[in-house]
Amino acid sequence: MSTTAKLESFRNEPFTDFNQEPARQAMEAAIAQVKSELGREIPLQIGGEKIFTEAKIRSINPGNLDETIGYVSKADQELAEKAMQAALSAFESWKKVPPHERAQYLLKAAKLMTERKHEFSALMVLESGKNYAEADADTAEAIDFLNFYAREMIRLSEINETMPLTPVPGEHNRLTYIPLGVGVIIPPWNFPLAICVGMTSAAIVSGNTVLLKPASNTPVIAYKFAALMEEVGLPAGVLNFIPGSGSEVGDYLTTHPKTRFISFTGSKEVGLRISKLAADTAPGQIWIKRVVAEMGGKDGIVVDETADLDAAAQAIVTSAFGFQGQKCSAGSRAFIVESVYDEVVEKVVSLTKQLEIGLPEHNKAVGPVIDEASYRKILDYIEIGKQEGQLLTGGGKAEGNGYYIEPTVFAGVDGKARIMQEEIFGPVLAIGKAKDWREAIALYNDTEFGLTGSFFSRDEDRISEALETMHCGNLYVNRKCTGALVGGHPFGGFNMSGTDSKAGGYDYLLLFTQAKLTSRKL
Ligand SMILES: NC(=O)c1ccc[n+]([C@@H]2O[C@H](COP(=O)([O-])OP(=O)(O)OC[C@H]3O[C@@H](n4cnc5c(N)ncnc54)[C@H](O)[C@@H]3O)[C@@H](O)[C@H]2O)c1
Ligand SMILES: N[C@@H](CCC=O)C(=O)O
């Protein structure tokens, strides 16, 4: 009997309804608990050894700059090399662990994370500035990745039974997906648990060992995941936790001859740099490094005159301002046909004005942006926007002891404007007018990115055409362009949005394996 038969089919972890009093209270209690433990020193984790360094990353609450989340030890090149040696050594035994056994570690971790869901979410509320629902969705997605990739590894290991090779008389032929080696995992801060867990767990369940360099803004939640994997008994050296500077540790490992693959999610600029550095072969290197690079977006929503305009306006606002617009999938552009333009714009502005700004732990709709550099960059873009469009609401800083910015809407923006073309990664929406729905789609497609998009219409013929002509990795109809679900919406983008790896999809683990064909003469 196949091993997958013993496991229930994959199901997405349900989201918590914080309108229910007990759920809200449970989250408040978790936040209080996490707050009582803030400010700890966090070690590196290399080959089972915990190492505290003098140099530290101070992780702070972006919504309350006086609050320190933790002091995280920081790797340098010497420690990165030590981690590489630990990972190389662990690979020799980990690669021999059968796939279904490797999967058990992920399943155990998923179970524990589900039991402690609010604890993980509460830490993200404080470290990344997510409100309750955004943090809860992040944790749910992390649980999904663990459950999904565990099942996927088992499925791949049974591929010869489910997708047999064409029989060749006189031969016994098998295809096996074997691991690659040591990988460097470089996640972003904006899904500080889900993306970190997804990238790491996919690589290790496939039989690789990894060096996890978390984003410097959110290393404490990343450590909580590394500690969970230790708790479930993952052998030492399989997951090495090495926070550090992107340019120092990142470049060192990207160019290292023993690095077999790099799994990166982050900005276009860093992704292209990694891709370029990894293409060079270092002395002693005997393979072509594999690079999985998921990068930025300039996503958008197209609305035609037949659409449900209330639903479209709500989707535009949710996609633009959810987690302060700091999603690669954020709908930072909207293109509306002229006959309904004024009406939709009015609805969007009215909904935006209702968004409350404030501390994430008080569960306000809009919290802070992640750090001072982002804050300044976004405010600069808002000034550019004032030259490029008509400011309808927002337009500057908001009150609070953190990096708060008003949700900002510009209308009448030309498709070639900078705020229509460049990823701002903040709460800024640019709206453009189109003479008809085909022109709106052409405006939507006029970007170097290609990650997510939505088309709002009630016309079936137009929907069919839009499904073909809107060019992006994740295209939605009559719904927001954020919020992909593991399994249901494999996620990844075209063009400068990356390598279209389709995280949470059936192709994903193939990126961390190599297929070996064995043919035996009978
Ligand atoms: N396509 C996707 O699936 C996806 C998902 C989430 C975020 N993103 C994108 O990520 C960006 C926001 O995240 P960010 O600010 O963390 O991105 P970033 O590129 O600044 O950083 C990403 C990671 O790269 C590391 N890094 C920086 N310089 C490096 C170097 N020289 N070598 C190796 N690593 C280096 C950082 O420390 C971090 O861990 C946005 O552009 C967003 O669109 C994309
Ligand atoms: N997968 C997430 C976006 C991840 C990037 O930030 C979504 O679909 O909204």
From TrEMBL:
Where does the Aldehyde dehydrogenase domain lie?
55-516
Has UniProt tagged this entry with the keyword Zinc? no
* Reaction it catalyzes: L-glutamate 5-semialdehyde + NAD(+) + H2O = L-glutamate + NADH + 2 H(+)
The record's section on InterPro entries has: Ald_DH/histidinol_DH, Ald_DH_C, Ald_DH_CS_CYS, Ald_DH_N, Aldehyde_DH_dom, Proline_metab_enzyme, RocA
Please state the pathway this protein functions in, per its UniProt record. Answer: Amino-acid degradation; L-proline degradation into L-glutamate; L-glutamate from L-proline: step 2/2
In terms of PANTHER family, this protein maps to:
DELTA-1-PYRROLINE-5-CARBOXYLATE DEHYDROGENASE 1, ISOFORM A-RELATED (PTHR42862), DELTA-1-PYRROLINE-5-CARBOXYLATE DEHYDROGENASE 2, ISOFORM A-RELATED (PTHR42862:SF1)
User: Under which name does UniProt file this protein?
Assistant: L-glutamate gamma-semialdehyde dehydrogenase
**Organism whose genome encodes this protein:** Paenibacillus barengoltzii J12
